[in-house]
Design a protein that fits this description.
The protein has helices at about 60-70, 75-85, 95-110, 160-170, 195-200, 205-225, 230-245, 250-265, 270-275, 280-295, 355-365, 380-395, 430-460, and strands at about 5-10, 25-30, 40-45, 55-60, 90-95, 125-130, 140, 150-155, 310-320, 320-330, 335, 340-345, 375-380, 400-405, 410-415, 420-425. By secondary structure, the protein is α+β, with helices and mostly antiparallel strands. It has three domains: about 25-120, GIY-YIG endonuclease, CATH 3.40.1440; about 125-230, no CATH class; about 285-460, Nucleotidyltransferase, domain 5 (2-Layer Sandwich).
């Protein structure tokens, strides 16, 4: 391999086979053991003494959400009655909040728990309709008797349909306001309706035709998306991101990177069937993620034999002020918050992300009592990874480290002093694991940074 070579990794290692799923029971807890619940997204089910499901809910953080039901704070009569009847708690862990939302809706529709809103018959299900107008709109409807319009669905609730539309709108702009309105809609100012039909109608003929073509192309892409044809849009967004990045237009490239993230959410819609067939499906996914990442990295780090614990690092600052660093840890693909650490960066009023990163890692490595991970991840590309490797060398440590470049979500590795980019497919299990770790480090660092800024504002009042 040549220095700075860019390679495309296979979707999955040849030795990892497709999984077969069997129906098993969800992970069970009793109320007095809720402190053992994991702090991850998922769906929880409350069962009574007869084993009947009496309530189903979803949570970003299962432990925090379920625990809230058993706190002594004042509850309404319905909640108090519900809690009195909880004999057992079952959970189905998932990767993303959106998966939990879809899974919750499907399970409520199937089991119709006593304390949930009772679903009505199928004719009341929600559809997404693309109207047959000069400038088609996306609306929600309970009827599918049209014969001309495009319909997608049914969806078990308007909440699910709106969540899907919100994700689509972040990928492809569209309009919902009445065609009789003369002024551009509210979403125009948020960049979520562009071009707006109200604006297009005021243009001269040539520009009118050009802008209308753009709008109709967007609607066509949305139809493909709702029909399950994701690949053309995925290729388009990826090509745009890479093109803008190659021209050093990183801010514009980042918008397309974010659009790809929202597309990935939608790609996971049908995964809820797997969770329903096997509530422990997440453990199979986690094994795939670890095995695939290990297989990819062993080419560059032959000594890497397992990836049980990962540490990830991120810096958050505003023009050099209130700079903070975060170190988060994942064990068996799940957050291990006992190993989370915050660093108040000592470099003041100076924009030096590399210096801040160096300071944080040096302070972390001085704690010999902190167990070293199997793999280190830094939010950044080659420059950030070079800093990491220099610090590790100074401490005479041989811990495999990788970077996750922000522009194109590329994994950056180092072998024999040479740096390489490994480009993984957007639906790669290994990439999903690294992204989840990186996003958690970013969230943790940003939360601490915001806390310091708030404390400063309060102290200066």
């Amino acid at each position: 391999m040549n220095k700075n070579n860019t390679g495309n990794a296979q979707t999955s290692p040849p030795h990892i086979k497709e999984l077969s799923y069997i129906t098993v029971k969800a992970v069970s807890f009793i109320p007095k053991n809720i402190n053992k619940l994991p702090e991850i997204p998922g769906v929880y089910r409350y069962l009574d003494t007869n084993g009947g499901i009496i309530y189903i809910g979803k949570a970003i953080n299962l432990k925090r959400r379920v625990s809230s039901y058993f706190q002594k704070q004042t509850k309404d009569a319905k909640t108090e009655n519900l809690v009195r009847n909880i004999h057992k708690i079952e959970i189905i862990p998932v990767r993303y909040e959106f998966e939990a939302l879809l899974l919750e809706a499907n399970l409520i529709r199937i089991y119709k728990p006593k304390y949930n809103v009772i679903w009505k018959d199928d004719k009341h299900y929600i559809y997404i309709q693309i109207t047959m107008e000069e400038f088609p709109r996306l609306i929600l409807t309970r009827r599918k008797e049209d014969g001309r319009s495009f319909f997608s669905g049914p969806f078990p609730s308007s909440r699910i349909a709106r969540e899907i539309l919100a994700n689509i709108r972040r990928i492809i702009p569209y309009c919902t306001q009445s065609p009789n309105r003369k002024r551009s809609c509210f979403y125009t100012y948020l960049g979520l309706c562009n071009p707006c039909p109200a604006v297009i109608k005021k243009l001269e003929q040539k520009e009118y035709a050009r802008q209308k073509k753009i709008y109709l192309r967007n609607i066509s892409r949305i139809k493909n998306l709702l029909s399950g044809d994701f690949e053309p849009l995925s290729r388009y967004l990826l090509a745009k991101m890479q093109h803008l990045s190659s021209e050093n237009k990183f801010e514009e490239a980042a918008t397309y990177r974010d659009k790809l993230k929202h597309l990935n959410y939608l790609l996971n819609i049908n995964i809820t069937n797997e969770y329903m067939a096997d509530p422990r499906y997440i453990s199979h996914v986690f094994k795939l993620e670890k095995d695939e990442l290990l297989w990819i990295l062993k080419e560059h780090y032959p000594s890497l034999t397992r990836i049980e614990r990962i540490e990830c690092y991120d810096i958050s600052n505003t023009s050099g002020t209130f700079a903070t660093g975060s170190m988060i840890s994942f064990k068996h693909n799940l957050p291990d918050k006992s190993y989370y650490r915050r660093f108040r960066i000592r470099i003041h009023n100076k924009i030096d992300d590399f210096g801040m990163l160096k300071e944080m890692l040096e302070r972390r490595l001085k704690h010999r009592e902190w167990k070293l991970p199997d793999l280190m991840v830094v939010d950044g590309g080659k420059p950030q990874l070079r800093i990491f490797n220099k610090v590790l060398a100074n401490f005479t440590l041989n811990v495999p480290a990788i970077g996750l470049a922000k522009q194109n979500e590329e994994i950056v590795v180092c072998a024999n002093g040479n740096y390489f980019k490994v480009i993984l497919p957007r639906r790669s299990n290994a990439l999903h694991l690294v992204q989840r770790v990186r996003d958690e480090a970013h969230r943790f660092a940003h939360k601490y940074h915001e806390l310091l800024r708030l404390k400063n504002m309060v102290s200066n009042e």
